[in-house]
């Protein structure tokens, strides 16, 4: 559902992540400050997340917060969601390596366009996942990809670019053991969240919004506002199997593979024997086990006017279609 912020909400906070992307483009942050001033919006910038959290909560309580600008990548967005009150509108200035959520929302780093979006004040609500208490917007991964992320960040020195992944990928190919993952879950058609079903795999992805690095779409039918998580698993563990699965995803044929399973759920728990890492939106999450839940409508994002109009039209058409199908 699309909503519009009250005109009285005039304050915009910036969260700046200088380590996002291949190089931090601080000049874009300065340009956005200047563009917002044209709309008489007051801006404040923070590099300390705790200070930003306190200020955002204060302005939300006072009814003055128009937006918190995430100047960074998908990890910056997740960080802000974890440190701002529910309902705090996030505006995305994509400066990361992949910027998957920004691409999904058709947002660019054009500061004049983003300033107009913030001034217009149209917001859209999305679900988020919560993994051991940490929120994520896009997906959680357990398996080879999480091992690559773990290695990348353990050796991280400064900004990340696509070439940064080569060494951790090669190291993971040589050393990753593909431990068995046990996924216990509550079926989506079940009342309550009791974990009554189970599947075993060597690769597991928990998808909220269907975007993954490299343009891969693991769960084509996933929707970010349906109150459910889409869990995609692959059964066998080896580099060869991984390449076969990757080819299936690239060709859009993985859903027909015998090794593939697709689950929709509100709650699941993933364990591994032996130990294995998991990642959240491309950042290290920790080590399994992990309990994951959906948090409906937890993410509020400022969107372009044309997207708001499209979403409103689709909502009207859906309501109309439902009415026509109802018994007369």
Search tags:
328 residues, alpha+beta, Rossmann fold, Tumour Suppressor Smad4, twelve-stranded antiparallel beta sheet, four-stranded parallel beta sheet
Describe this structure in a few short sentences.
The chain is α+β, with helices and mostly antiparallel strands and 328 residues long. It contains nine helices and 16 strands.
Summarize model confidence as the mean pLDDT.
88
In CATH terms, what is the fold-level topology of the largest domain? Tumour Suppressor Smad4
Q: What's the N-to-C terminus distance? A: 27 Å
In terms of per-residue confidence, which ranges show pLDDT below 50 for 5 or more consecutive residues? none
Major sheet details: 12 strands, antiparallel
CATH class of the largest domain: Mainly Beta
Coarse structural class = alpha+beta
Measured on Cα atoms, how large is the radius of gyration? 20 Å
In the CATH classification, which architecture of the largest domain applies?
Answer: Sandwich
Number of strands: 16
The coarse silhouette is globular
What is the element string, with H for helices and E for strands? EEHEHEHEHHEEEHHEEEEHEEEEH
Strand content: 25-35%
The helix content, as a percent range, equals 25-40%
The total count of helices amounts to: 9
Q: How many domains?
A: 2
């Amino acid at each position: 559902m699309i909503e519009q912020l009250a005109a009285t909400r005039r304050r915009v906070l910036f969260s700046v992540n200088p380590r996002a992307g291949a190089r931090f483009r601080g000049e874009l942050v300065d340009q956005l400050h200047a563009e917002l001033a044209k709309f008489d919006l007051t801006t404040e910038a923070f590099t300390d997340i705790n200070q930003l959290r306190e200020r955002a909560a204060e302005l939300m309580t006072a009814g003055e917060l128009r937006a918190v600008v995430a100047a960074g990548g998908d990890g910056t967005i997740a960080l802000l969601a974890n440190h701002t009150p529910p309902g705090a509108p996030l505006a995305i200035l994509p400066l990361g390596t992949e910027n998957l959520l920004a691409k999904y929302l058709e947002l660019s780093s054009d500061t004049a366009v983003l300033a107009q979006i913030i001034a217009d004040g149209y917001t859209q609500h999305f679900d988020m996942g919560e993994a051991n208490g940490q929120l994520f917007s896009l997906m959680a991964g357990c398996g080879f990809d999480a091992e690559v992320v773990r290695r990348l960040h353990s050796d991280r020195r400064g900004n990340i670019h696509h070439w940064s992944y080569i060494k951790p990928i090669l190291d993971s190919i040589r050393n990753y053991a593909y431990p068995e993952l046990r996924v216990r879950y509550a079926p989506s058609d079940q009342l309550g969240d009791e974990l009554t079903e189970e599947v075993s795999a060597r690769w597991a992805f928990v998808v909220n919004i269907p975007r993954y690095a490299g343009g891969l779409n693991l769960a084509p039918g996933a929707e970010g506002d349906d109150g459910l998580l889409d869990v995609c698993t692959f059964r066998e563990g080896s580099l060869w199997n991984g390449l076969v699965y990757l080819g299936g995803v690239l060709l859009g044929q993985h859903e027909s593979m015998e090794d593939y399973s697709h689950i929709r759920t509100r709650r699941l728990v993933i364990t591994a024997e032996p130990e294995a890492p998991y990642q959240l939106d491309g950042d290290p999450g920790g080590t399994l086990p992990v309990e994951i839940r959906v948090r409906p409508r937890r993410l509020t994002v400022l969107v372009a006017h044309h997207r708001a109009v499209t979403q409103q039209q689709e909502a009207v058409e859906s309501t109309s279609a439902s009415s026509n199908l109802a018994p007369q």
